[in-house]
């Protein structure tokens, strides 16, 4: 059987396994239930605000990515496209958000998908680099992490050499720093989200632990098959416990809280997108 046929089955198995793990911990570990019960309305509101910040950061990333392909997109259009892609990526089949975004850009701006693919790889380069710095930040003081990130950016000249030079020649790298800054904003906002969640479950959590935790959670996205890296993120966080020293119970409780808040955010975004009929504009562009 081909991988395309096996992938839906693999997604279902991972989702069922993760849900079963959550239910097991929720039933057998009262401390998990106690930690979740500490989530106040103020905490939920602050997490939603931070998640909205990540949506803004992703919109900036989207605009900066197409800018590498000599396409200028307005902030409002990029934000709307980002919100719609996030909704269908989580609730749609097989994480179809990126595919919809690519089709939209090809139809709306006649964007060459090969160029867009190379520009997207540049974003992944920054995202992976910042996440690795966060993951390995135990070797540094937490306040040195931004300096390490700046040091990472000085390596930007390396990919310009063979064998990457030919591919990167397809895009305009003059404004690459916009993409780098937007990516760092995204990773930083996610770190604050995780830190607040961990603090609500385990008040003694240090910010340095949240930085490492964020790096591990982000890297899980590169191997994920499921919406929001369900199951994969938890596995990465468990495997990296020797780095961030966060207990299993706290990881499970924090991820349950995180998933719940993120779903609420997507429902709010869906109500806005579909309530304002903004989705019709995007679908019209794709169908033309």
For the structure shown, list the relevant keywords.
288 residues; 14 helices; mainly alpha
Main beta sheet: strand number and arrangement? none
Number of helices: 14
Number of domains: 1
Summarize model confidence as the mean pLDDT.
78
Radius of gyration: 19 Å
Low-confidence stretches: none
Coarse structural class: mainly alpha
Strand content is under 5%
Overall outline: globular
The topology string of helices and strands comes to HHHHHHHHHHHHHH
- The percentage helix is over 70%
| End-to-end separation | 35 Å
Can you count the beta strands? 0
Topology diagram in text:
Layout (H helix, E strand, L loop, with lengths): L2 H26 L1 H8 L3 H27 L7 H17 L5 H13 L3 H23 L9 H9 L11 H4 L7 H26 L5 H13 L12 H8 L1 H4 L3 H28 L2 H10 L1
């Amino acid at each position: 059987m081909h991988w395309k046929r096996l992938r839906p089955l693999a997604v279902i198995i991972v989702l069922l396994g993760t849900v079963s793990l959550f239910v097991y911990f929720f039933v057998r570990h009262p401390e998990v239930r106690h930690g979740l019960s500490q989530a106040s309305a103020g905490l939920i509101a602050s997490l939603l605000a931070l998640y909205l910040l990540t949506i803004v950061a992703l919109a900036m990333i989207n605009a900066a990515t197409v800018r590498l392909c000599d396409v200028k997109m307005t902030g409002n259009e990029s934000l709307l496209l980002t919100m719609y892609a996030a909704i269908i990526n989580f609730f749609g089949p097989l994480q179809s958000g990126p595919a919809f975004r690519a089709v939209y850009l090809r139809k709306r701006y006649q964007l060459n998908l090969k160029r867009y693919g190379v520009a997207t790889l540049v974003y992944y380069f920054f995202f992976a680099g910042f996440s690795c710095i966060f993951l390995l930040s135990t070797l540094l003081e937490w306040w040195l992490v931004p300096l390490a990130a700046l040091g990472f950016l000085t390596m930007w000249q390396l990919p310009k050499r063979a064998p990457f030079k030919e591919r990167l020649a397809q895009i305009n790298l003059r404004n690459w720093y916009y993409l780098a800054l937007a990516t760092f904003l995204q990773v930083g906002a996610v770190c604050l989200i995780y830190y607040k969640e961990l603090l609500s479950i385990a008040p003694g959590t240090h910010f340095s632990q949240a930085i490492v935790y964020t790096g591990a959670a982000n890297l899980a996205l590169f191997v994920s098959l499921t919406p929001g890296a369900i199951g994969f993120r938890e596995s990465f966080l468990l495997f990296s416990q020797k780095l961030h020293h966060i207990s299993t119970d706290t990881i499970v409780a924090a991820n349950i809280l995180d998933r719940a808040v993120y779903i609420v955010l997507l429902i709010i975004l869906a109500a806005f997108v579909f309530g304002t009929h903004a989705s019709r504009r995007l679908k019209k562009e794709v169908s033309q």
